[in-house]
């Protein structure tokens, strides 16, 4: 649901516009002056989809408000409202970057049309920027590794990238499945077309369908514009479906149709649209077991699993810990503009002896935290979280418990969860897993 901010010192205008826009499916926040509006934008500049503001206000001139809005939220489309005597101000506002203006009193069809066009313009601008960023970033930066295990995966990735077959990437959370997917795209014949990524576990079914297939205006409450889906955005390129094992049976059936027929129907549409997309899917689940237990369609599994790539967890390729740690160090030091150049041997030994249940993502979080806290030019062992330091060696007469990897994972997840006072979002971030995955793990462990 698009959120629109309205700023006008006339209470009657605010009430009329709020009621009108809410009736047509918009979320609305109202402000009686420029100062309160600017304070709200400073606190959360990315919240509104559009600003509708008066060009004349008593507490702060509307033109000055517009100038400050452009600095706080340069991408935010602004429509100004003006009376007959202030048209020159409205024209000046357009020159300063406002999208359009409407003259009071305005019929509801006029204002709704202007707002719809402004929102559609923003949507197109965001799509163009995203595609431009994808092309500029490129997908051919090789992964960082030193282990023979990962070398096998990387060589196979390059070998299969040139084909146009669908690929299923298997591996635990945080092992680098999206990086491998980008490597596939960057070394394929589709490299000049979009690479579009979607985390299937992060969205409810209804939102996932809308994101994938798009929707038509009026298809459901809040659908005020036609929305292109990610399938159309990825046309000619690659669509990466992360956590495909979390997709519902209904969405699985629709995905199967797209893969088989190369066509789909947006929500609320009556005609099918065709696309040419290469599918790369990833999951940390055992899909064969999911198929056997009836939770994942067997025909979809075989359509996606033309070629499979299995990424080993970080604990099975300890040779990669040091080069990855130095890679993340360089990245975060440059981003934070800090003079941190290396990692002390003791800290490297600690990193190398840890079992990394959160894999590469957990290592990345650990190094980012260490760079933030670093006061000198080297990362030291005391900057590492307690959970990433090796446990002290047991005494000679102390029995070492024989634990399975599943039990080690269970103890680590519960330890981090309790350490954070039961805060799920923070726990998931530290572990490098999605909130949905954490919920599933806690349910398995009997934590309510």
Written overview of the protein:
The protein is α/β, with parallel strands linked by helices and 448 residues long. The radius of gyration is 26 Å and the shape is globular. Strand 9 and strand 10 (273-274) form a beta hairpin. The chain folds into four domains: 3-129, Rossmann fold; 150-312, P-loop containing nucleotide triphosphate hydrolases (Rossmann fold, 3-Layer(aba) Sandwich), CATH 3.40.50.300; 315-390, Helicase, Ruva Protein, domain 3; 398-448, Arc Repressor Mutant, subunit A. The strands form four sheets. A five-stranded parallel beta sheet has the order 2-1-3-4-5, sandwiched between helices. Strands 7-8-11-6-12 form a five-stranded parallel beta sheet. A two-stranded antiparallel ribbon has the order 9-10. It contains 18 helices and 14 strands. Helix 2 (34-43) packs parallel to helix 3, helix 13 packs across helix 15 and helix 17 (424-431) crosses helix 18. The two termini are 32 Å apart. The longest helix is centred in the N-terminal third of the chain and has 30 residues, at 108-137. Residues 143-372 form the Sigma-54 factor interaction domain. Keywords: Activator, ATP-binding, Cytoplasm, DNA-binding, Nitrogen fixation, Nucleotide-binding, Phosphoprotein, Repressor, Transcription, Transcription regulation, Two-component regulatory system.
């Amino acid at each position: 649901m698009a959120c629109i901010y309205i700023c006008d010192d006339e209470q009657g205008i605010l009430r009329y516009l709020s009621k009108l826009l809410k009736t047509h499916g918009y979320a609305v926040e109202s402000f009686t002056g420029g100062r309160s509006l600017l304070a709200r934008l400073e606190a959360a500049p990315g919240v509104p989809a559009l600003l509708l503001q008066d060009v004349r206000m008593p507490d702060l001139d509307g033109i000055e408000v517009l100038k400050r809005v452009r600095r706080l939220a340069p991408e935010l489309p602004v429509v100004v409202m003006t009376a007959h005597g202030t048209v020159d101000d409205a024209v000046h506002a357009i020159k300063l970057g406002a999208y359009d203006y409407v003259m009071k009193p305005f019929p509801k069809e006029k204002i709704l049309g202007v707002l719809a066009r402004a929102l559609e313009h923003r949507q197109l601008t965001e799509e163009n920027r995203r595609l431009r960023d994808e092309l500029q970033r490129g997908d051919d930066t090789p992964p960082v590794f030193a282990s023979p295990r990962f070398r096998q995966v990387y060589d196979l990735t390059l070998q299969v990238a040139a084909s146009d077959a669908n690929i299923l990437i298997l591996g635990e959370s945080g092992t680098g499945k999206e990086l491998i997917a980008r490597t596939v795209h960057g070394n394929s014949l589709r490299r000049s077309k979009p690479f579009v990524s979607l985390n299937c576990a992060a969205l409810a079914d209804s939102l996932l369908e809308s994101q994938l297939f798009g929707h038509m205006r009026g298809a459901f409450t809040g659908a005020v514009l036609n929305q292109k889906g990610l399938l159309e955005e990825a046309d000619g390129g690659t669509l990466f479906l992360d956590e495909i094992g979390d997709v519902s049976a209904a969405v699985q059936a629709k995905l199967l149709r797209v893969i088989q027929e190369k066509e789909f129907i947006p929500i609320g549409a009556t005609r099918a649209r065709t696309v040419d997309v290469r599918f790369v899917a990833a999951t940390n689940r055992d899909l064969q077991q999911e198929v056997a237990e009836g939770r994942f369609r067997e025909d979809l599994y075989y359509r996606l699993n033309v070629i499979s790539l299995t990424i080993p967890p970080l604990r099975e390729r300890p040779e990669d810990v040091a080069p990855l740690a130095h890679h993340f160090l360089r990245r975060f030091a440059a981003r934070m503009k800090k003079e941190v150049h290396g990692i002390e041997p003791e800290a490297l030994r600690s990193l190398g002896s840890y079992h990394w249940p959160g894999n590469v993502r957990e290592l990345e979080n650990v190094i980012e935290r260490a760079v933030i806290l670093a006061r000198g030019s080297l990362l030291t062992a005391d900057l590492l979280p307690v959970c990433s330091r090796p446990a002290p060696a047991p005494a000679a007469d102390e029995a070492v418990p024989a634990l399975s990897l599943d039990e080690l994972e269970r103890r680590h997840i519960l330890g981090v969860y309790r350490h954070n006072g039961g805060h799920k979002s923070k726990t998931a971030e530290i572990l490098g897993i999605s909130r949905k995955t954490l919920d599933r793990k806690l349910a398995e462990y009997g934590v309510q």
